[in-house]
């Protein structure tokens, strides 16, 4: 299979394909991709939640790329799209997905907002890891995950982040695949089943050199027990 076909297998696996319904809150997780902010604003303006939280400081991909925290840039996009400023909450300290969840929850608690359901908005290839993190860190919450609605080709070809090309996107997707396998044992996420054809595509992409976003971890497949079992508990992800 060619690189594009292998990448699309990983892309499809990362999607949760949730049906988005009305919720108590929208939580938009920060990143380099401003299309995520546009998607969050769209959901709010369509009446799917009464309040929207933007969560994100500067992470591994935006440190040195942006001068302001992700949450501030995303909120400015939402306000320009028509979201009222008084319906926006900003969490600007988080640097990874686990902190996005925990610090957004703390912020809502300080505002005496205790949601029973949220719509989490993330990049398309981070839907599954976002879902798995929410279900570990905020177990009682009903979470629906969504992302900008586009194909892999459109996502790569129309990326507003000029510093992140198709190869870099594939590197990031492969890195997220590894984290889905590894993080349940570290206690950062719930376990997610990985079908054999997805794992095989992941391994082939690694052989082809897509290793830039991998965590240094020996014997990742063995540590995942052949993709089975949740492992230890506790911690936030990296």
UniProtKB/TrEMBL annotation:
InterPro entries, sorted: Cell_Envelope_Assoc, DUF218, Rossmann-like_a/b/a_fold
Domain of life: Bacteria
Every DUF218 domain range: 24-143
TM helices/strands, residue ranges: none
Pfam families noted in UniProt: DUF218
Recorded GO CC terms: plasma membrane
Protein name: YdcF family protein
Native source organism of the sequence: Anaerocolumna sedimenticola
């Amino acid at each position: 299979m060619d690189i594009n076909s292998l990448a699309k297998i990983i892309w499809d696996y990362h999607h949760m394909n949730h049906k988005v319904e009305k919720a108590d809150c929208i939580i938009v997780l920060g990143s380099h991709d401003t299309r995520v902010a546009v998607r969050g604003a769209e959901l709010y303006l369509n009446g799917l939640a009464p309040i929207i939280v933007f969560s994100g400081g500067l992470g591994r991909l935006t440190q040195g790329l942006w001068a302001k925290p992700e949450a501030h840039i995303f909120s400015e996009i939402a306000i320009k799209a028509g979201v009222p400023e008084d319906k926006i909450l900003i969490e600007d300290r988080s640097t990874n997905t686990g902190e996005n969840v925990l610090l957004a929850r703390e912020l809502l608690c300080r505002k005496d907002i205790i949601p029973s359901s949220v719509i989490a908005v993330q990049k398309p290839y981070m839907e599954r890891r976002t879902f798995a993190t929410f279900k570990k860190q905020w177990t009682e919450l009903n979470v629906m995950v969504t992302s900008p609605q586009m194909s892999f080709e459109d996502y790569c070809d129309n990326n507003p982040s000029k510093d992140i090309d198709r190869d870099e996107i594939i590197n990031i997707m492969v890195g997220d695949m590894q984290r889905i396998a590894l993080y349940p044992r570290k206690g950062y996420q719930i376990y997610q089943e990985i079908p054999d054809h997805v794992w095989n595509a992941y391994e082939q992409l690694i052989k082809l050199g897509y290793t830039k976003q991998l965590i240094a971890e020996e014997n990742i497949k063995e540590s995942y027990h052949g993709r089975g079992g949740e492992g230890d508990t506790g911690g936030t992800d990296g």
